[in-house]
Design brief:
Chain B: InterPro entries: Bact_solute-bd_prot1, SBP. The structure holds 2 protein chains of 2 kinds. By secondary structure, chain A is an all-alpha fold. Chain A is built from 14 helices and 2 strands; from the N terminus they run H-H-E-E-H-H-H-H-H-H-H-H-H-H-H-H. Chain A is flat, with a radius of gyration of 29 Å. Classes of the chains: A mainly alpha, B alpha+beta. Chains A and B meet through helix 2 and helix 13 of A and helix 1, helix 3, helix 11 and helix 18 of B.
């Protein structure tokens, strides 16, 4: 419709075409709308998906936790009873201890190792850097179920590789899922194997962002590589480290698949609940037991609160110690 | 830009998000029932383990022109959460759903999730084992399921391993070794001695299963569904019998990798076989062990482990046709066919008298006359009242405590304490 207007030869004497101002006006309106609302449109997908799969389930879980909720039957409102019951529940505290135990066993060595590896990969003289960086990330690409199944086989009592190796050096076979320490160790091994490379890469990225001249200046001043690491790398890595610690905390508190598959899918996590994590306990109460879904929802909220508290604590700890 | 407009816009965005979520949720409601009498294009059947319905379903498709989709789940432990999801969300369930005894009991208090079959099928109450038929009913009289099979117990044993250890191998002589559980333990000790210390049975929880289901009175619940796990003599008896066998056990928990691998490795020489277990034993042992297994009777008379019903979820769009399909799959002829295919033991009286059933021998199990063996043991089954959360108490209270004792983590007293405490929480409903 506007073709004639744009292709018409410009003639200075001709009066301005009557539809030009309205067109410009329309364009301006569109422009204004675009500036005003497009950003919301662009971020809308995230908020919609978060709303549907993040916020809504959380609110719904909170609602459920205030009920005596049968998954396939009646729901009765009981206020905060589920939460008071939670504080007196021995198996909840047991799961909490297990979760923190496995968390400590997997996160601390993992982050130290990741720091060490990242420092190695950061060396300038290293050859085939890209290869090593890719290789170290590989375990993270493997599906968690596959990892848990393979490690579950390695840690088997009768035909497992680790017991066979122990046998070679004259150690009696270990019933890996029979005791606390051994099951925690086995599960931490899976977590460490899978996540060390991931954390290494993040720390490495953080290290590469540290200006090189700091190191050069320190080297000229005669600082040893060890000293450079403590005085330059670590302090400069603080924000990255905080990030990694918080991510590990969230992951560690929600640990589920590895211990579940280690127990052959039994949600109790060992015959005396030696390695039942909080997430498994939530699953037992909320999904496996049909009639305690409300209580399971309360456990879910407890996990959420614990993650918030522990993350805050770790955040403060890392910030203070790096000062 | 003023604060108010920004707020309005935020509110608008939030509103849009909420409407979108509402829209998503609204997609879930499409319970428009088809017009009555309309023939369904397809019916879906959900089963777990091996029901042996493959050929039967093909025949049904040919006869009626209705397509049937058979959805199989290997293990009950994976099957149950799926069913729960279907029921909790009100969608996704198959038209015909197999319910194992434990699941059926658990679902009974919420019987409204299932169609009442009474008006949908003709009266079959006289055609099945009476106690089995009764168990398929809800307390309010609704008929929830048509009986498929029972898990009449027997002992599967390895002839070659028995022979190597100096035990008899003929099935009648083997059965004569253990008229009672004491005899079974003695045979186990003899095997252990003769084989140089090898384990005789897979686990003590397998023994407890056998003893529990012989029906010496109420188990975890009394008839009014009060929890009596800590005082029930039948449970104590199962506990004592099972724990006494720890010295002949391979400590391989049923369904664990140690257990399935143990069949090939010969880590145990005997296990308890309800009829439906035969298929699993042959599957786990592999073709190379064909003819090495045989079937003997269970100590202390008959017993029943498992067994199922076919039910129609209330959410099915074609309850009438689904009920007809369930009727077809549980009739005498179908039950014999299913037994021959995969081993589930008939509950239809006519099927139990059927010549093809009685004369059936199982090639894998040294041509044991499994039809005759299991058919006879069905008559000895004592119906037991299990109660709503029997399965949970057994699997999450009794068996973990037994395993804790079996593996030496807890003394017998401590383990019993663990069981009675957990039974109360697991059994609450």
């Amino acid at each position: 419709m506007s073709l004639s207007a744009t292709t018409a030869p410009p003639s200075p004497a001709a009066p301005p075409s009557p539809d030009v101002p309205s067109r410009r006006h329309r364009g301006r309106l569109f422009n204004r709308l675009d500036v005003k609302y497009s950003p919301y449109l662009y971020i809308a997908p995230f908020f919609l998906i978060f709303g549907a799969f993040g916020l809504y389930p959380m609110v719904r879980t909170a609602w459920m936790s205030l009920h005596d909720w049968d998954m396939i039957g009646e729901h009765t409102f009981i206020g905060l009873d589920n939460y008071t019951r939670l504080f007196a529940d021995e198996y909840f505290w047991n799961a909490l201890v297990n979760t923190f135990g496995i968390f400590a066993l997997s996160t601390i060595p993992q982050l130290l190792l990741a720091l060490f590896l990242a420092n190695l990969l950061n060396r300038t003289f290293l050859r085939a850097k890209t290869f090593f960086r890719m290789a170290i990330f590989m375990p993270n690409v493997v599906s968690v179920a596959a990892v848990a199944i393979v490690f579950g086989m390695l840690f088997q009592r009768e035909f497992g590789l680790f017991n066979w190796l122990l046998g070679l050096v004259g150690v009696d076979p270990v019933d890996w899922d029979g005791q606390r320490w051994s099951s925690w160790f086995a599960i931490s091994t899976m977590v460490n194997w899978r996540w060390t490379g991931y954390n290494t890469l993040i720390l490495l990225a953080g290290m590469q962002a540290i200006p090189k001249d700091l190191y050069e200046a320190a080297a000229i001043d005669g600082a040893s590589p060890w000293r450079q690491f403590w005085q330059i790398t670590l302090p400069m890595l603080k924000p990255t480290f905080t990030f990694v610690v918080i991510l590990s905390t969230i992951g560690g508190m929600q640990l589920f698949t590895e211990p579940l598959l280690f127990a052959n899918g039994n949600v109790l996590g060992g015959s005396q609940r030696e390695f039942q994590t909080l997430a498994m306990y939530m699953y037992e109460m909320g999904i496996t037991n049909l009639n305690t879904a409300g209580y399971g929802a309360a456990v879910a909220w407890a996990i959420f609160m614990i993650i918030v508290v522990v993350s805050l604590f770790n955040f403060l700890l890392v910030r203070r110690s790096a000062k | 830009m003023s604060v108010t407009t920004r707020r309005t816009r935020l509110a608008a965005a939030a509103l849009a998000a909420i409407t979108a979520i509402g829209g998503l949720a609204a997609c879930g409601n499409d319970d428009d029932k088809p017009a009555a009498g309309e023939k369904p294009a397809k019916l879906v059947v959900d089963t777990f383990g091996e029901f042996g319905y493959e050929e039967l379903v093909k025949q049904y498709e040919k006869d009626t022109g209705i397509k049937v989709e058979l959805r199989k789940t290997a293990q009950l432990a994976e099957y149950r959460p799926k069913l729960v999801r279907y029921l909790a969300t009100g969608k996704g369930a198959a038209d015909v759903t197999a319910l194992e005894e434990g699941i059926l009991n658990e679902f009974k208090p919420n019987a409204r999730n299932w169609a009442d079959l009474n008006p949908l099928v003709s009266d079959h109450s006289k055609e099945f084992l009476p106690w089995k038929w009764e168990l398929g009913k809800a307390p309010d009289g609704r008929l929830l399921g048509l009986p498929t099979d029972v898990g009449s117990l027997a002992v599967c044993y390895r002839k070659d391993l028995f022979q190597a250890a100096g035990l008899p191998t003929e099935r009648d002589q083997v059965s004569a070794l253990w008229p009672d559980w004491k005899g079974f333990h003695d045979a186990g000790l003899k095997y252990k001695q003769g084989s140089g210390g090898k384990a005789f049975i897979d686990s003590i929880t397998a023994v407890s299963n056998g003893v529990l289901f012989q029906g010496n009175g109420d188990l975890f619940y009394d008839k009014e569904d009060n929890i009596i796990a800590d005082t029930s003599p039948a449970v104590k008896n199962a506990w004592d019998t099972a724990t006494s066998m720890a010295d002949i056990s391979a400590k391989a928990q049923t369904w664990s990798p140690e257990w399935s691998g143990g069949f090939k490795q010969g880590t145990f020489a005997a296990t308890f076989c309800p009829s439906w277990m035969l298929g699993i034993v042959s599957e786990n042992s592999g073709a190379e062990n064909k003819g090495k297994w045989d079937v003997a009777s269970v100590p202390g008379g008959g017993g029943n482990w498992g067994g199922s019903w076919l039910a129609v979820p209330a959410q099915s769009k074609y309850p009438k046709e689904a009920a007809k399909l369930a009727e077809y799959l549980t009739n005498a002829k179908s039950q014999v066919e299913a037994f021959k295919a995969k081993g589930p033991l008939p509950t239809n009286l006519e099927a139990l008298k059927n010549d093809a059933f009685i004369s059936y021998t199982n090639e894998y199990f040294s041509n044991a006359p499994t039809g005759k063996i299991f058919g006879e043991s069905v008559a000895k089954i004592q119906p037991i009242h299990l109660g709503p959360k029997h399965q949970a108490v057994k699997e999450n209270a009794l068996e973990p405590a037994m395993r804790a004792f079996e593996s030496g983590q807890a003394s017998k007293e401590k383990a019993w304490e663990q069981f009675t405490k957990d039974a109360k929480t697991q059994g609450a409903f």
